[in-house]
Specification:
Helix content of chain A is about 80%, strand content about 0%. By secondary structure, chain A is an all-alpha fold. Chain A has two domains: about 1-55; about 55-295, no CATH class. Chain A is globular and about 75 Å long. By secondary structure, chain B is mainly α. Chain B has a single domain (about 5-95), classed as Arc Repressor Mutant, subunit A (Orthogonal Bundle). Helix content of chain B is about 50%, strand content about 10%. In chain B, α1 crosses α2 and α1 crosses α4. Classes of the chains: A mainly alpha, B mainly alpha. At the A-B interface, α2 and α3 of A face α2 and α3 of B.
């Protein structure tokens, strides 16, 4: 129990500024406090510190302007991706027959659907990563709270917000192919309840947490690099907002239809995949930097 | 005007002098009041006192008994001494003649 308490003390201490963390841990070591008492103390300090940060207007703006809309929009995008993937998954997994391997039509269908599913999954991962990157680069001190709030928003989005919104959307546009609970895919509990949670966790929550870590680390970059990263990140998130069936529904339904179909805008959409380029370039730079340091050392 | 806990911390820091730092001040306050002083209250109040210019804090050298971690050292500034003096005088003046000051049992049944 005591060991668990001290582990938790370490975890909570990480939420403090480095100087304060050292002083507080030193005080615990010197006073010989029990694990439970130290945990209560450090939790009290963390709560006070975080509460003090929320006296400012900026975290509230980030909550209302970024966490809530991005969490909701990503949940909608995740539900859309799940719906698309579920159709193909059901088609192949639930209707599997080894004889299909000998069928030319099967391979033709598979070659057509796999890239569609992969691209939509990659797009969702890139959007999520970018949302996390932006949130992580806002404030290092408040990032843990943003992380928790964003996760809560994703849970709310996948379980309640996005399904309700998509029902409303389908009702508004009255699509004849609107899915209902009696269709063979939605009738299966796995596709209705489990798959959305898996997609939301693997393609939204995990990449956004990863993006948050990278966003917090990007604070050390030169100003012009940060400005460039922010520009592509904001473009990506704007595309997320207008492309998916959230705000995009209103825009697409009216005046954006023609602009959206134009080639320059189609090319602009490639910016969504910037996290892939960023991570590759970052890995190359780190490898080259480590190699240079090693050569200089020897 | 200072708060009660702010005054207690200023008094502890003044009494400890050069040896005033987080853990030592906490012990001083606990001994003086006979109740627990939480680290959260201690460090947030120290921040407030520093923001008001009543104390100055800095990171000291790491010591082995603290696991190689530094202390947050505290020194009362001249405005801090003045604020604590005013608080003490105000409390002393306000307490003059009341039962707990003259050690009489002033509570009527």
């Amino acid at each position: 129990m005591t060991r668990i308490c001290w582990r938790l003390v370490d975890v909570f201490c990480r939420l403090l500024e480095p100087g304060e963390r050292a002083a507080v841990c030193g005080d615990f070591a010197e006073s010989g406090e029990s694990g439970g008492q130290a945990l209560r103390d450090v939790m009290g300090l963390v709560v006070r510190r975080q509460a003090a940060l929320w006296k400012n207007w900026r975290p509230w703006l980030a909550l209302v302007g970024l966490i809530v809309p991005l969490g909701m929009q990503l949940s909608i995008a995740s539900r859309m991706t799940t719906g698309q993937s579920a159709t193909y998954l059901w088609l192949y997994a639930n209707n599997w027959d080894w004889a299909l391997l000998k069928d030319g039509g099967f391979w033709y269908g598979l070659v057509n659907c796999v890239p569609i599913v992969l691209v939509s999954c990659l797009t969702l991962v890139c959007w999520s990563w970018t949302a996390g990157f932006v949130l992580g680069s806002l404030s290092r001190r408040i990032a843990p709270v943003y992380r928790v709030l964003f996760c809560l928003m994703l849970v709310f989005g996948v379980l309640w917000g996005a399904p309700r919104y998509l029902d409303f959307l389908l009702e508004q546009i009255r699509r004849p192919e609107s899915p209902d609970a009696s269709d063979p895919i939605s009738a299966l509990a796995f596709y209705r309840h489990v798959l959305p949670l898996i997609v939301q966790t693997l393609l939204v929550a995990v990449p956004s947490m990863w993006g948050m870590r990278r966003g917090a680390a990007a604070g050390g970059f030169p100003r012009w690099v940060r400005a460039g990263l922010w520009s592509v990140a904001i473009t990506t998130l704007t595309l997320l907002l207008i492309r998916e069936s959230g705000l995009g529904f209103i825009l697409r339904a009216f005046w954006l239809q023609r602009i959206w179909q134009s080639w320059p805008i189609r090319w602009l959409q490639m910016v969504v995949y910037w996290p892939v380029a960023y991570l590759i370039l970052n890995a190359i730079w780190r490898h080259w930097h480590a190699k240079t340091l090693l050569e200089n050392h020897t | 005007m200072l708060g009660e806990f702010e005054y207690l911390l200023l008094t502890a820091a003044a009494r400890l002098g050069e040896k005033a730092y987080g853990a030592a001040m906490r012990q001083e306050v606990e001994e003086a009041c006979g109740r627990r002083c939480s680290i959260g209250a201690l460090y947030t109040t120290l921040d407030r006192l520093e923001a008001k210019g009543l104390v100055k804090t800095w990171m000291g050298d790491p010591t082995p008994q603290r696991g190689g971690r530094p202390k947050r050292m505290v020194r009362v500034t001249a405005p801090g001494t003045q604020a604590a003096t005013e608080f003490y005088r105000a409390v002393t003046r306000a307490s003059r003649g009341v039962s707990w000051e003259t050690n009489r049992a002033g509570i009527r049944p």
